[in-house]
């Protein structure tokens, strides 16, 4: 039973997933700090206080929903421009390099072909 647990925990997929969760959590803190400490104050400086939590529609706290929605849009935009676009650019550059690399060796010159034919004929005679 413990051997099965050890084998499960040591599988590559589980370790990769654990690393992804840790890196994702750290990246989440970076993005949240970017939004809360940089982008939101800039929006506040340009258009007034970016806090809508006081907006209510009767008993419904509509402002909190607006804050969450705006935060989601800012985080999504930041992730897109800071992660997705650079990764797509890097992948397209790598793909271009792979396509430019010769897949097969170039064809030998005529002299080499002729020498190979001569060598083949000499081997047949020997």
From TrEMBL:
| Cell compartment(s), UniProt | Cell membrane
Provide the membrane topology annotation. Answer: Multi-pass membrane protein
Q: Where the protein is mainly located, per its record?
A: membrane
The portions of this protein that span the membrane are 65-87
Q: Which GO terms describe its cellular component?
A: plasma membrane
> Which SUPFAM superfamilies does this entry report, sorted A to Z?
Gated mechanosensitive channel (SSF81330)
Q: Which family is this protein grouped under?
A: Belongs to the MscL family.
Q: How would you summarize the oligomeric state and partners of this protein?
A: Homopentamer.
**What this chain does, per the record?**
Channel that opens in response to stretch forces in the membrane lipid bilayer. May participate in the regulation of osmotic pressure changes within the cell.
Q: What is this protein called?
A: Large-conductance mechanosensitive channel
Originating organism: Thermus arciformis
Taxonomic lineage from the root: Bacteria, Thermotogati, Deinococcota, Deinococci, Thermales
